Amino acid sequence: MAPCFGRLVGLLLLVAAPGRVLAQGEPAPEPAATTGGPVSHRELAGHLFVPSHLVQDPFSYTGVGLFWGVGGGDATGPTLDLGPPPRIDFVNTRSYGFNGLGVGMALEARILEWISIHGTVDATAYLGTGNRALLVVGTSAQITGLVGLKGSLQVGEHVRLAIMLDAQYGPVFTALIAQGLIDAVNSGQISLDQFYQENRALTWMPALAGAFAPFPFVGFTMNVRFLFPDGSGNAQFASNGIAFAGMLDLDLRPLVPFVPIGLSGVYSLLTPLGGALATTQNFGLGVYYTGVPELAAGIEIDWRLGRIASQHVSNFTSAWVNLRYYWNGK
């Protein structure tokens, strides 16, 4: 009985004091099994990339996103004198204010480690503020749907590349009162088409995207899209064009663990390859919460320089709320 009791006491001491020095020849206890946590498919080299509605990333993941924004801006147009008699001065131009809003949803499904399908639906609208702005700037609404396929491949530890093929359909509805009156006077007749425009276009967009994370706290995202519209088009997609977008984002959490904040700077350019496509630039600054790998939540302030659907040169400032949830795998 005594030898058995001694062995039992020795076993209890081994369990109670696993850190003690082992006697010579005594077998070491096996390490406890560990289970890996969820893997974020938008992470590269330890850096967790933040999203933006202006930039397509090269990652393959499953997720859903919502974004909505409001803002205001100014558009340059002819001087409208309501009279009497009313007249329009095309030589001396002036600025007209307008307000706008946008809302959208994005879905992406990861089929394989290197391939995913995605789609977005969004709607934007603007309206001139004041009597003169309503007549000159008018009002416009655009509904856009996009579906695409993405092939993604990681190159080494710090780089990920992707090739995409997207198809986008975007009808634009625009009401222009002042321009309609001008057309009616010039043509000597009045028709509904002079006051209302409806443009539709199916745009094919092959694209290349890449991400680079030199350190866990910094990442770069870039993409290039080629636009090939098939239809009447609108102010943005009336002819073949090229679009470039780039983003630099900083994650403060690897540097200061108790500050789960991400900062981003975005730039995008849409320019023609020929024809009457209007050049548009966007500048954006974002602040995101990075404490949960499955969630990306933030606010982005954008400044847009270009033309609106009525072809007036404009600048527009908007604030966007971006929310995305990712289903990460093991």
Helix and strand arrangement:
Blueprint (H helix, E strand, L loop, with lengths): L1 H15 L26 E2 L2 E2 L13 E20 L5 E26 L2 E14 L2 H6 L2 E17 L3 E11 L2 E4 L1 H11 L8 E4 L1 E15 L2 E14 L9 E11 L9 E12 L7 E10 L5 E13 L5 E15 L3
Antiparallel strand pairs: 1-2, 3-4, 3-16, 4-5, 5-6, 6-7, 6-8, 7-10, 8-9, 10-11, 11-12, 12-13, 13-14, 14-15, 15-16
Structure description:
This protein is mainly beta. The chain has a single domain (44-327), classed as Porin, CATH 2.40.160. Helices cover 10% and strands 58% of the residues. It contains three helices and 16 strands. It has helices at residues 2-16, 131-136, 177-187, and strands at 43-44, 47-48, 62-81, 87-112, 115-128, 139-155, 159-169, 172-175, 196-199, 201-215, 218-231, 241-251, 261-272, 280-289, 295-307, 313-327. Strands 3-4-5-6-7-10-11-12-13-14-15-16 form a twelve-stranded antiparallel beta barrel. A two-stranded antiparallel sheet has the order 1-2. A hairpin with a 2-residue loop joins strand 4 and strand 5 (115-128). The longest helix is centred in the N-terminal third of the chain and has 15 residues, at 2-16. The two termini are 50 Å apart. The model is unreliable at 4-36 and 233-237 (pLDDT under 50).
